[in-house]
Amino acid sequence: MTDFIKNLFKLIKNFKILLFFIFIFKSAYAEVYNEIIVNGNDRLSVETVIMFSGIKVGQDLSDDDLNNSIKNLYKTNYFKDINLLISDKIIKIEIIENPIIQNIKINGVKNKTILQKLRKITKKNEKYPYLKNKILDQNNLLLNIIRATGFYFAKIETNVIDNKNNSVDIIYNFELGKRAIIKKINFQGNKIFRDSKLRNIINSEEGRFWKFLTSDKYLDERKIKNDEFLLKKYFDNKGFFNSNIKSSYAKNIDNEFFELNFNIDAGNKYYFNELSIKISKNFDIKNFEKVNNEINNLQGKIYSTKKIQKILDDIDKILIQKEYLFINTDYNLVVKGENKINVEFTFKDLEQFYVEQINIFGNFITEEKVIRNSLIVDEGDAYNEVLFNKSINSIKSRGIFKSVTASVNESVKDNQKKIIDITVEESPTGEIFAGAGTGTSGATLTAGIKEKNYLGKGIRLTTNFLIAEDEIKGKFSVINPNFKNSNRSLNTTVESTSSDFLSTGGFKTTRTGFGVGTGFEQYSDLYVNLDVSTYYEKLETSSAASAHKKKQEGDYLENLLSYGLTLNKLDQNFQPTDGFKIGFKQELPIYSDDLSIGNTFNLSKYHSLSDNLIISGKFFFKSVNSIDDDVRVSRRVYIPSSKLRGFEAGKIGPKDGNEYVGGNFGSALNINTTLPNILSGYENIDLSLFFDAATLREVDYDSSLESSKIRSSTGLSVNWFTVIGPLSFSYAIPLSSDESDKTESFRFRIGTSF
User: Could you tell me the residue range of the domain that residue 59 belongs to?
Assistant: First the structure.
């Protein structure tokens, strides 16, 4: 019995081997066919169908080749059904074509911007085969676009109309409903940071009547997910390594109004413990001395992913400078105890690849070259992960895309090359804004229009106006960040200012002109600006004006050359908490009726002592000197009230009779520190203490008028984010002043740009 079973198994095994060889033989067997016939084609020619199939007359064709030809035809999406019939060395391809989408209509959407966006997507499917599954996918895409604009309750109904010529019309019927407005944003579980601070971190905004043009006040699920990421990132950068956004949800409270809630668990605050860099023997350790110093300085400091990223960026810069293109940096974290973290920075070798192709997707409005101009890595270059990441960040920094994603894929042609796919999601780039303000120094009205991506070329247009009691300003500017596909910007400005200081300064002036300039990043975070401008000014004086001012009355033509340098090391441009920014600008006359040279210097420094305690210092210096004559009164330096609280704007310094005449040199120092919020239930109020000091000195035509005394003040400022807009108060106590100065202890302003 045992021998019988053994023999049976041998027989089965040999039979399997036989079947295998029969299969191989059959698959490998090839036959030459003399004719290919196509039946059932209507729109497509016989030649096109045969080309799609991948087979030819007179070609040796195996069963696998024939099966692959059917697969090739189905991949085109042009065919509903395909049959292959073979007889007498003739191949018959029997096909049924899919209907073609003739027209696509969209009903129920009146907003032109949204409608245009929907049509750009649907337009791509016209004249292409109708596939039910593809249309269903597109339904979801269109619905997501609609809901992203605030129509959270939107519904879509799709009708497919069959035409006589094997084509269909698709009609999308939208029922939009009301836009879902975020009435309140709550942060549950957060006991560390003020709610007002967290609201500034996220993109979603509470709906207020002055925000009628912003889309951030509308409920958008994708935006909420991004808000979670931003909150997590913020807590991580403040030392809360184990922070967790436990949940986020929107609660319908009244028809179209929602409450947006974030449930936050901050966890414990962590500090850097031991930090080190593991340097390979292949590198010169001297190149990393600066980085080592940075690492050592972090020991004992509050943990921050931003600070870790700063070290990684500095290491990457060294690697790029030394042309180590195929090296990547990484770091390892080890938690020690309850609140300490060890960090080890490491190097790893990357495979050497080259960029074969870069594909751009999702840019329906933006021209492709605008995106490509932001790329540091180009087709044909050696692939480098550091430069690749910098390229993606450069695209994001343009501020015209909601999201930028990228993937690196293997090439099908060459395993030593990679294909980069970059997908962008465009955001609304146009903005109309207006604002109003009132204070102890009078009322102001502002308005303007902004466009960040004109004609899809990445060009920024800005028009704004200001109307105050003694001044009217208008300005129009055009900025091309990548002039002629370079990394240099080109900017053009036209502006006009009319100022009436007859009652306080004895003069009024109208100044109109235009300028052209360029800017570029010379080194890391160091920016250079060059400008040429022309202005015409008409200066008039009052009957009671001083003799000196009457002498300056008349018309002036100015042609100016200016250059500037800016070093920006702030952690963020909006509400910075750490770092510094230095700027210098000089204005030189080329050919002018008034040969004056202007110099301006600005320094800002921020330092975070704790989560709610940020100390900032700002220093300002400006000088104007004439080569051949006295400096024109309208060109002199005046100290604004924003730089010297407790004093009226332009009402300090030298006086000629009853008139303030400004000075040749002016400087100001502002020191500010935020205060913890001690008012329970008023998280929308920010408090800060300040110290201001300023001086204005030297009058070129009469040294006896000079008043170089340092003015100073201290006080409390309050920013209250109310339902009608931001309300700002400041109470300043002058510490030192001159008897001729006009003080102003209390100031307020209400209003906002929207």
Answer: 2-97
